Structures are given as C-alpha cells and as structure tokens.
Amino acid sequence: MLVPSLLVATGLTAYSVAAIRASSSSQIVLPRPTGHYNVGRTASVELIDYSRIQPFAPEIEPVKLGISLFYPVLTRQYTTPTAYFPAEVAAFEDITLSGKGLQSPNGTFERLALSLASDEACRDARHRPAVEFPLAIFMPGEGTTRLWYSQIASTIASNGYIVVAIDPPYNVDVVEYPDGSLAFLNSTLWGSLDPAVLLPTAYVGIESQVQDVRFVLDQLSNVTLAHTLVPNLPPSGLNTTTTAMFGHSLGGSTAYSISEQDSRILGGLDMDGGLFGPGNGTNKPFMIMASANHTRDPNGDYTQVSWAETWPNITGWRRHVMVAVSISLTTQFETFADHPGSYQEALHYDFSDYPIVFETLGITPGSTVASSENGTLTGTLEGHRALQIVTTYVTAFLDLIILGKRSALLDGPAIGFPEVTFEY
Ligand SMILES: *[C@@H]1O[C@H](CO)[C@@H](O)[C@H](O)[C@H]1NC(C)=O
Ligand SMILES: *[C@@H]1O[C@H](CO)[C@@H](O)[C@H](O)[C@H]1NC(C)=O
Ligand SMILES: *[C@@H]1O[C@H](CO)[C@@H](O)[C@H](O)[C@H]1NC(C)=O
Ligand SMILES: *[C@@H]1O[C@H](CO)[C@@H](O)[C@H](O)[C@H]1NC(C)=O
Ligand SMILES: *[C@@H]1O[C@H](CO)[C@@H](O)[C@H](O)[C@H]1NC(C)=O
Ligand SMILES: *[C@@H]1O[C@H](CO)[C@@H](O)[C@H](O)[C@H]1NC(C)=O
Ligand SMILES: *[C@@H]1O[C@H](CO)[C@@H](O)[C@H](O)[C@H]1NC(C)=O
Ligand SMILES: *[C@@H]1O[C@H](CO)[C@@H](O)[C@H](O)[C@H]1NC(C)=O
C-alpha cells in the first residue's frame, strides 16, 4: 500500500530498466526478423504515473506500466539468441498454456529465444547520418502479456519502426517489473462470464489504457529519457507527435478509443478486438483485422455487434479485413497449389506470437485444443504464415498512416495474400 501523499503528487514520474536474464538451458531460437534492419530491444522498463490510481489493482497504488522497446539497428553483426521471457514469467507461462491444453511442461518457454542484435552491437551501432525512425505503439490483448507479441514487434521494428509495447498491469496475465516483482491479472473482474460485469470492466479497462498510452507518449517525449531507452537516437529523440497505434483485442479497442482523443495518434489498427470503450467515432484512418467469420453482423457476438454499431462512425479512411479463406473458392491463387482443399483460417490468437512460437518449439496444438473456447485459439494457418500476414499488413498500415506510403495490399485482395479477404 502506498503512502497517500504519493498519490496526490501529479506529474511525478519514475522509471527503471532491467535486462531480461539470459536463460542457461539450451535455447530454441525464433526466426530472425525478416525486415531490412537488425533489431535491438530494451526489454523491461517500468514507467510510473503517480497522478492516477490503477483501477483494477487489489490495493491502492499508482499506475505502474511495464514497457519494452524494439528498434532498428544499423549493424552488420549477426544476431544473437536473446531470452524471450524472463525466467519467472517463462515458468508462469508454462503453467498458463498447459491450462489451455498445450503440451508445455515446466521448462518449455525458458528455452525460447528471439534473434536480436546483441546489446553490444546496439551500443556500438552508429546512425550517421542519424536516421529518424517513426514510433509505433502496441498494446496486447486482455490476459496476455506484451511479451507474447515480441516476434511481431521485432519484425515490425526490422521494417524501420521503433515499437513501444505497453503492458497495462492487472489487465494482462503477468507483468514482471525490473525489480523482479510481479503483478497478476485481476481474474475476479476479467474472469467473469457475466456480460453485466465484463462489459463495464472492459469499458473501464480501455478508458484506463487510453490514459496509459497518453502517459507513455508524454514520457517518451522527454529527450533525455528517450536517449536512455533507445541507443543512437537523433538529438531530437523520439517523434511522439506523429505516431499510430496497433493492438490485439483489448489493445485494439484502445487504439480505437485513443484515435478520437489524442492528436498525436494519426490512426489505429485493431486486431480482432471489440470496440467496447469510450468514443463516439473517429475521422482518422482506422483498420480492423479480424479472425475467421468475424464480420460486422449486428446479431453476432459482442465484438461483431460493437463493430456493426461503430462502423458508421468511423468516417475517414477505413478497412475491415478477415484472415480466412476456403481454398476451394480461390483456385485462381497459385499459392494454394500446395494446399489443395484446405481451409486457412485465423482464430483470435493468431494475432499474437502463439503460432510462430508453437511452430518453432514443435508444440503446435491439435485442432481440438487449438479451436476450443478455453484452448489456445489458434487456427489452421502455419506459424510463419500467420506471422507474415500480421506483420505485412500492420507494416502496410503504419507506412500509409505515418509515412503516407500507399500500398495496394490495403486496397483489396492481393495474389500474394489469398488468406486475407475484404469486408471493406
Ligand atoms: C480487482 O479489482 C478490484 C477493484 O476494481 C479490487 O477490489 C480487487 O481486489 C481486484 N482483484 C484482484 C484479484 O486483483
Ligand atoms: C511445475 O512448476 C510448478 C510451479 O513452479 C510446480 O508447482 C509443479 O509441481 C511443477 N510441475 C512439474 C511436473 O514439475
Ligand atoms: C526527463 O528524463 C530524465 C531522465 O529520466 C529525468 O531525469 C528528467 O527529470 C525528465 N524530465 C522531465 C521534465 O520529466
Ligand atoms: C515528427 O514528424 C513529423 C512528420 O514527419 C514532423 O513534421 C515533426 O517535425 C517531427 N517532430 C519531431 C519532434 O521530430
Ligand atoms: C462522446 O460524446 C458525448 C456526447 O457528446 C461526450 O460527452 C463524450 O465526451 C464523447 N466521448 C469522447 C470519448 O469524446
Ligand atoms: C455514433 O455517433 C453518434 C452521433 O455522432 C452518436 O450518437 C452515437 O452514440 C455513436 N455511436 C457509436 C457506437 O459510437
Ligand atoms: C467459418 O465459416 C466456415 C464456413 O462456414 C466454417 O467452416 C468455419 O468452421 C468457421 N470458422 C469459425 C472460426 O467460425
Ligand atoms: C471453458 O471454461 C468455462 C469457464 O471455466 C467453462 O464454463 C466452460 O465449460 C469451458 N468450456 C470447455 C469447452 O471446456
């Protein structure tokens, strides 16, 4: 419990940084990010907003956000295996994913590593002339730590973005702070199956996450702090006034709500999240990437109903794509010559690293576990393909919104991506 006087001090910020300890056991390494750049990571930073109280904490405390930054590195040096999770989180996720029916005995995720530039290479890299990479903001889904999106974030960083991933504590399963302390999901509120509890919880959660993002942008505009968190920035630091947000599930809902409220966010991308939060609409660019059959059906599930209601109020450039296709309908696409008669569909967690991680570890769940409501919610797409689809479309979106670079990918079906269908 905090001394109350701390809570009235507004504008007071604290931050601390830690490295994720390297795991000792034999590592299994995720693919190197596919973009033009190597990628460095500042793994674990805590930013504390003393001006607000965390709504779903078990005790009164200020908002303590866990963040990671992924940034492009100009170095020729080879990548090095870098622990995906800190040890305690890895052990926690072994148990969490076992609970979803995955074969992930103790020790499974501790072995997982990202393929990143070494800390030494990041420090030594020189950007001459200084390259100003744009900033993109990411928030994860409810119940799922930001760390579960590290391969997606790395890949987008390798395409030339500085990605800041933000964990809202008590809304995600676990946040480990640089001092090793942990904050767990508020399972009382989020575990409820009663819509009368869940929808108001989601509303307050999104409202709070909007403030979290705004706070992080305020902090990252501090040039001194920015230079501490990302090596080799230009003297102006991070560009926090020309940015965009993408998010999965509740993180995507947050991208919608913040679009209306914050002029620094030029547009938002929602990966399969219901639009349950505050907001009357937006005239900024907004995109939905949906899982299979997630249309805007006003008689569908909560998410579909929220999309149906919100869609008319998204008045600027907008897109709604679905990641699912029946091969029988798309025989014209030669990509599918290898997969005759198959049905490629994304489920909710294909917008996370689950598929690429399971594929890399060789623990891809059977279809019963994958598609069960309490299972991993991963579909029939192969892991590397799910990753490629998500990161290609997110990058195309960021390129359009932040850099003004148009891509035919966002205008309609593309031969290289037959799994992506347009609900416009
Ligand atoms: C959930 O949040 C409420 C406050 O909204 C708090 O009273 C309760 O202790 C929290 N429960 C858990 C398990 O964190
Ligand atoms: C796995 O770890 C958990 C907690 O760390 C422990 O309770 C459990 O007994 C372990 N399971 C096995 C099979 O070792
Ligand atoms: C900017 O960040 C530095 C380093 O964390 C800190 O010392 C300084 O107080 C911050 N400035 C403002 C205005 O918050
Ligand atoms: C941020 O980027 C925009 C667009 O490129 C530019 O106009 C602005 O000056 C940049 N701001 C900073 C602080 O670099
Ligand atoms: C939505 O509109 C209502 C009524 O005009 C207004 O009170 C509210 O502040 C708006 N919400 C946001 C997030 O701007
Ligand atoms: C859409 O906008 C109208 C008026 O601008 C507002 O009354 C309505 O609540 C909004 N609906 C949603 C779902 O945002
Ligand atoms: C989507 O619809 C197709 C065709 O009706 C069906 O085969 C498939 O099981 C559905 N998938 C989901 C996740 O609802
Ligand atoms: C999923 O979990 C909920 C809540 O624990 C339970 O009510 C439901 O029966 C479970 N569904 C399956 C298919 O196991």
CATH superfamily: Alpha/Beta hydrolase fold, catalytic domain
Into which percent range does the helicity of residues fall? 25-40%
CATH topology: Rossmann fold
Number of domains: 1
CATH architecture: 3-Layer(aba) Sandwich
The low-confidence runs, each spanning 5 or more residues with pLDDT under 50, are 1-12, 329-334
The CATH C-level name is Alpha Beta
Shape estimate:
globular
Total helical elements? 12
Write the layout of secondary structure elements.
Layout: H1 4-8, E1 13-18, E2 28-29, E3 38-53, E4 62-73, E5 80-83, H2 87-98, E6 112-116, H3 119-124, E7 135-139, H4 150-158, E8 162-167, E9 174-176, E10 182-184, H5 187-190, H6 195-220, H7 223-229, E11 243-248, H8 250-261, E12 265-271, E13 286-290, H9 302-310, E14 318-326, E15 343-345, H10 354-361, H11 367-371, H12 383-403, E16 420-422
Parallel strand pairs: 2-6, 7-8, 7-11, 11-12, 12-13, 13-14
Antiparallel strand pairs: 1-3, 3-4, 4-8, 5-6, 9-10, 14-15, 14-16
Helix pairs in contact: 4-12, 6-8, 10-12
One 2-acetamido-2-deoxy-beta-D-glucopyranose binds next to helix 8.
